[in-house]
Structure formats: C-alpha cells, structure tokens
Design a protein that fits this description.
The complex is a heterodimer.
Chain A (H helix, E strand, L loop, with lengths): L1 E8 L4 H14 L3 E6 L9 E9 L14 E4 L19 E5 L14 E5 L1 H8 L6 H12 L4 H11 L2 H21 L1
Parallel strand pairs in A: 1-4, 4-5, 5-6
Antiparallel strand pairs in A: 1-3, 2-3
Helix pairs in contact in A: 1-3, 1-4, 2-5, 3-5, 4-5
Chain B lengths: L1 E5 H11 L4 E4 L7 H11 L6 E4 L3 H13 L4 E5 L1 H6 L1 H9 L5 E6 L13 H4 L7 E4 L3 H18 L3 E6 L7 E5 L3 H7 L26 H30 L6 E4 L6 E5 L3 H14 L4 E6 L1 E3 L3 H8 L4 E6 L10 H10 L6 E6 L9 H13 L8 E3 L9
Parallel strand pairs in B: 2-3, 2-4, 4-5, 5-7, 6-7, 10-11, 10-13, 13-14, 14-15
Antiparallel strand pairs in B: 1-8, 6-12, 9-11
Helix pairs in contact in B: 1-2, 1-7, 3-5, 7-9
Classes of the chains: A alpha/beta, B alpha/beta.
Chain lengths: 181, 389
Amino acid sequence: MKEIRIHGRGGQGSVTAAEILAIAAFYEGKYSQAFPSFGVERRGAPVTAFARIGNSFIRTRCQIYEPDYVIVQDSTLIGVVDVTRGLKDDGAIIVNTEKDPEELNLNTKARVYTVDATKIALEILKRPIVNTVMLGAFAGITKEFSLESLVKAVRKRLPPKIAEVNVKAVETAYEISKEVI
Amino acid sequence: MRDIVEGSRAVAEAVKLCRAKVISAYPITPQTHIVEYLAEFVANGELDAEFVRVESEHSALSVCVGASATGVRTFTATSSQGLALMFEVLFIASGLRLPIVMVNANRALSAPISIWNDQSDSTAVRDCGWIQVYVETNQEALDSVIQAYKVAEKVLLPFMVCMDGFVLTHTYEPVDIPDQRLVDDYLPEYDPPIKLDPENPVTIGPIADPNYYMEFKLVQDEAMNEAKRVLKDEDEKFGEIFGRRYGLIEEYRTDDADVVLVTMGSLAGTIKDVVDRMREKGKNVGLVRVRLYRPFPKDEIVRALKDFEVIGVIEKDNCFGFGGGALFHDVRSALYGKSNAKVIGFVAGLGGRDIPYWDIEKAYEMCYEARVKEVPDVVWIGVRDWFRR
C-alpha cells in the first residue's frame, strides 16, 4: 500500500487533488481511498488531505502518519507545518516552488523534487490553482498511475467547463516532470 | 456498476435505487452531501420524488412522518445536533410504526462545538425504538439502505443507518452501485397495511389512555425483536442477489484469539489491519464488529464472546456518570450470567480524535495485561495524559 499526504492552503484544491489521485489509481485497476483531514474550511489556512493506493480493498481509515509520498502545494507552508514528518526514507516529496530541491533544506532522507507549478498554472489556467499541475508532476515522478488514468480522473472529478484546461495542465506538468527526475 | 465515489454519494445512489418518494431535509450544518445529491437527482429528473426543504430537523422528520403515513417511501439524513433536535419525533415515528429510513452521519454533539466524527449522537437515542445498524464501509452503507427499506416495511419500524461522519461520508472509495432491475426485484413497491387515504378515512396516532398505552408498547417491543430475524433473512436474500452479506455481527479472526476487541462502525476496518499485524508478531488477537445495534443481537454476542477471558469494547461514545460507552454496557449486560469475562470499556475517538494503529495496539495490550492483573473497567485512549487513567 502507498500512502500519500497533501499539504496546501484552504482554496488550493488539496482535497480535490487527493480525490483525483484516488480516482486515477482506481482507473489504473487498483484500490484506493481519499479523505480530507476534516478541518474547518477557511481560505488560506493550512489544509491536509490524504490518499491511499493498494492492491486490495483498503480497510484502514486512520490518518496517514508515515507517508510514502508528500505533495506540498504551497512552499510557504514549509516551517509552518512539518511537511516531512514521518515521510519514509525511501519515499519522495514534491514541492511547488521555483527553487531547487537543495535550497529547501528539508529535514528528510527521502527524495526531494521541485516543480514551479504556480508558473505552469498561471500560464495554462490563468489562475494560481496548482492542484492538477502537481498531480501531473506526481504521475510523472512516481509512476503510480499513467497519464491516461489521471486525465480520465480529472474529467470525472472536475466540472466540464474547467476539465479540459486542467487536462492540459496535467499533461504539461507530466512532460516537465520528466526533466526533474 | 463499479465506481469510485464519496460515501455520501453512495448513500444518495441507494436512496435513488430504492425509489424514495418523499425526501425531507434541513440543508445546513450539520448536514452532509447526501441530501445535496438527492436534491440534484430530483431537480434533474433522475429521481421521481418530492424534495421538501424545511426549516429544521424536527420538521424534516415530521414531514417524513406525515408522508410515510400516506403510504409512501420516505428518506431523511442528519447528524449530531440535527438528530438531537429530532428527538421528540423519533419516538413518534417508531410509535406510529412508520418505516422511515434515515441515514445518520455520526458526528459529535456540542458543546464544545465540534463538527467531527463520533457516535455519541445515535447511541444516545438507542432506546427510541428505531432499528440501528452501524456500517464499516461505504459499500455497506449503500447496501444497508436497501436492506433497511425491506426490513422496515416488513416489521413496520423506522430504520437508522449509522455511518461515521467524514470518515465514511467524505471518503472516496470504490463502490459497486447495483443494477436498478435487481434492486426492484429485491425491494417491491411499499404496500402498507394501513394508510391515510381520503377515500378511506382512518385515524393514525390517536390518544391511548392508561388502559391501552402499554399494549401498544408491548407489540412495538415484539416488532423490534422480530426485526432481528427479518434482517437476518433479508441479509441472506440480499447476499443471494447481490453477492454481499453482512450478518448481525461480524467475527474477524476470533477462532483462536487470546483476547478480543468489540466495536461498531468504520473503526473495525483499521482494527482488522491491526489484528493482522499483531498476529504476524505472534499476538493472536481478534475482533467482533457489532453491525446491528438495535435490536441488540444478544444471542449472537454471547455465542461469539462467552469463552473469552478478557473482552475490550472500543467505541466513540461515553455514558456520563457511569463511564464507558453504550456498547460496553450492552455487551457486559448480555454476558451477565453467561460468562465471567473481564470486560474493559475503551472510550476513543470522541469529537473526531484520530484513532491510529498504536492506540488500538495499546487497547489489545491492556486486554493481555488484564489476564494477569487488575486493570480499570473503563479506559480512555488517545487522550494526552494516557497514563493518568
């Protein structure tokens, strides 16, 4: 089983990201689960969302304390929230930032990847909403599911009028993520 | 059709498949997406029902009472304070023998203000004459709604499907949404023995003076006991058609277990994974999940638990002034005179406090300890000062 924790701020679509991630894994023929950390929703406040991917039905429902992967949608959370907490040594963390991984000085033995997702989002979506961009990068880096499954999941979860532009965001991030591996 | 949806969506799909005719709800906190999806189904013509939006949960259930009395299938959903506000009408629904189905998304009661999960809301109304089932997964929530209508309409009692708020309602996971044709075969149209009909006027809910009241209550209690047998049969029939059975209780790896935990709801899933893990380390532990809570399956509980030396009951509610949760008291009471087991009540997960693996392991460890030394009857786990108690 792979466990994923997503850190973001209210309004950045972290919960939706976890849901799309679980749907993509489902289309990949796997079992999956996604749930929010059930906070009181406020724009700008730190938000955590979780997802699990496995080969059999996922029974465990507690929060994720030792993730295989962490996605950080907003680098200003680093230092505010302990984003690497419990991250497995052989895991990976993907951060939205224009900086290089070593500049972040993260306290982890896991692999650190950075993607300038805000830039991609502003170019394609014309808004700094990075959740689908980060998922494109996640798929490219971790190979937990294919780009096709992710695109299908975006089309299922997002309303039709914003789905296609987000598909483009996912595809672009997927291509770019090949450079950071 | 296999799909991946939110728990609330799974429930709404079930209500649609059951062709509910009147749905009433108060659409503000504490409510879930369940009634939002249903409002959408009604608005876009997918479900031929009347959606009655009201100004409180008291009214929501009152609308269901009135509608159900006219002989149609009704549905409502609520949580925590909403269920508390329904308190008066809960007894009217069961006393009038109306087969209303409600999904209660289990959430903590204020104060202090909490919107998060626990089971204090529905355990507090265990004696209101509603059948109560607690589900572990979103699949079971969906299937239980279908079973609920079948059972409720046979025994003429209201049925509450309790599913953990957020932990299930807001979780996406794979669910099999059954074929409409199969649900229609399993669940025929509701044909009440008596109903409000202008062509054939009757009085439903008259005054019962002291000469009659007790007999009403006695037959109501008998109907509750009958509900146990009916659910067992209907669960079996459901299994034949849909391939899924749940039973009244579920025993997980209890055959050779040294100690056993008992629980209700979605916590059972996490515990099963802990059981497997502890067994890999040589600790033979087991789990009994109580699915049907009212009527309480006493015989099944006794059969499953009577040979254990130590039983831990772990639950998300507390009986103030006695200590331990409602299930703990019920299990201990069912075992009285049938077993000398030490029963420990573990209170956990109140107000949405997460219950991680290690807290469940601690509960099992304490059960092992109780075999060799005195341990308290009631233990709160996952609180900051764990050792204080």
